[in-house]
Amino acid sequence: MQIGGSDMEEADVKSLAARFGKLAVNIGMKNSNIKRLRSALRGRDKSLVAVEGIWLNAKALASQAHIEALYVCPAMIHTPEGADLLSSLISRAVRGVYIVSEGVYHRLSEPKSDEGVISLCRLPEIGLDDIRLREKDLVLILDGLESPGNVGTIIRTAEAAGARAVFIFHGQASVTNPRTVRSSLCSVLSLPVVEAEMEDVQHWLHKNGFTLYFADATGGTIYSDVEYASRSAMVVGNERYGISPEWYEAEHLSVYIPMMGTVDSLNAGVAASILAYEIRSQFGFGSRS
Asked: What does the pLDDT look like over 114-137, one tens digit per residue?
């Protein structure tokens, strides 16, 4: 295997697969496994996500993702780091290792990349009752967000700020959308992300002693003037229309981020990040768990 001086070859991939007792096979666009991948790349499969490129797949490995299948274009693996990552991915692939040509790979990849690796990962199956809570905890609730980029950014921020979970409903941007996956840097595979009905989420919040806060650009209390409860739930609403009216029937406190100059609002992902880190700063940064 000569990496650095020349491209990896099909035989190298097959040799790596054999080392782990697996078979790497060549497939084309009409193969059923390509159709399965294309469904995930379009965000149509609600249980599988497509992870593209070396960096994101390294993140998937770090999150102990369940890798269903691996799609490799050997000629696009150019570095020792890529070869090492490929070895780790092959060792974890459950259902198969598939070799594709450059032409097939470029027809699949979104955005067009030249890293030569796409994994198909299974989302963790997590329900509300599976979430283990701490004495101090934060959850973020996304109500009707439309942008996959915003959803992914907030999921990434939630994990970075030590939130316990993200709840999504009325969602127009799927968790399995490739843009969501990329924007989250694969946090969709390591942080509990639960799509649930509002009534179920409200019941769970009440049962577990959460105080409800609304990110509300129309007014309320300045976010930094609030002493947040030990179990806080922050609702972030739709980019254009805000939080759904039915939420306002629940007991809550609205908070806002003051705007200077001519700006009247922030991107939903940016606003959620500021609020999440304000709550985390009050909780303290002593533990990453």
From this structure: 789 999 999 999 999 999 999 999
**58 & 182 share domain:** no
Please check whether residue 108 is in contact with residue 71, taking contact to mean a CB–CB distance below 8 angstroms. Answer: yes
Is residue 2, in this structure, part of any structural domain at all? no
Domain that holds residue 112: 10-122
pLDDT-derived band of residue 4, with 50, 70 and 90 as boundaries? very low
Q: Of 89, 122, 155, which residue sits at a domain end? A: 122
CA distances from residue 265 to 6, 73, 214, 217, 252 in whole angstroms, order as listed? 51, 44, 15, 7, 21
Is the pLDDT reported for residue 112 higher than 80?
Answer: no
d(C-alpha 63, C-alpha 121), whole Å: 11
Q: How far apart are the C-alpha atoms of 281 and 242, rounded to whole Å?
A: 25
Closest residue by Cα to residue 168 from 125, 147, 197: 197
Span 173-191, mean pLDDT? Answer: 93
Return the exposure string of 136-175: e unless at least 16 CB atoms fall within 10 Å of the residue's CB, then b.
Answer: bbbbbbbbbbbbbbbbbbbbbbbbbbbbbbbbbbbbebbb
219-275 pLDDT, tens digit per residue, is 899 999 999 999 999 999 998 899 999 999 999 999 999 999 998 889 999 999 999
pLDDT for 49: 95
Look at the block and give the residue holding tokens 């769970």.
Answer: 204
Same domain, 70 and 159: no
Within a domain: residue 5?
Answer: no
Type of residue numbered 265:
S
pLDDT of 3: 47
Q: Decide if 101 is inside a domain.
A: yes
Is-contact 268 146, C-beta < 8 A?
A: no
Instruction: Give me the count of residues in the chain.
Output: 289
Contacts of 108 (CB under 8 A, 6+ apart): 34, 37, 38, 41, 71, 100, 118
CA atoms within 13 A on the CB side of 22: 22
Q: What's the whole-model pTM score?
A: 0.91
